[in-house]
Amino acid sequence: QVQLVESGGGVVQAGGSLRLSCAASGRTFSAYAMGWFRQAPGKEREFVAQITWSTANTDYADSVKGRFTISRDNRKNTVYLQMNNLLPEDTSIYYCSLRTGPRYDYWGQGTQVTASS
To answer: How far is CA 5 from CA 28, 87, 109, in A?
Structure first.
């Protein structure tokens, strides 16, 4: 089993920045990649960013490219999401997730991010 705990959410004005953290514990050696997803009220959960555990290859949703940066610290089993120039449409619950294969298997409890206009 893997446990994921997010932190770093909050309320900022549009144009501001936040950094989310996700600490993984348990069978993390089986991880292929970790990612961030988000879900706004009344909308489906959507992909935000992903980083592969061994090679640190990254992938981003078009809506966040150039504003968000995903990174990881293997020694701390932690993934970060640096979010700059936040827009009101970025307001969502952000979830950390870990995949051991083709699908994301484990999920955190989520952290609220609000960018006010």
So the answer is: 13, 24, 7
Strands (E), the chain: 2-7, 10-13, 18-26, 33-39, 46-52, 58-60, 68-73, 78-83, 92-99, 104-107, 111-116
pLDDT, one tens digit per residue, over 36-74 is: 999 999 999 999 999 998 899 999 999 999 999 999 998
Contacts for 69 with CB less than 8 Å, ≥ 6 apart: 81, 82, 84
Q: Is 98 exposed, middle or buried (0-12, 13-18, 19+ CB in 10 A)?
A: buried
Give the count of beta carbons closer than 10 Å to the beta carbon of residue 76: 11
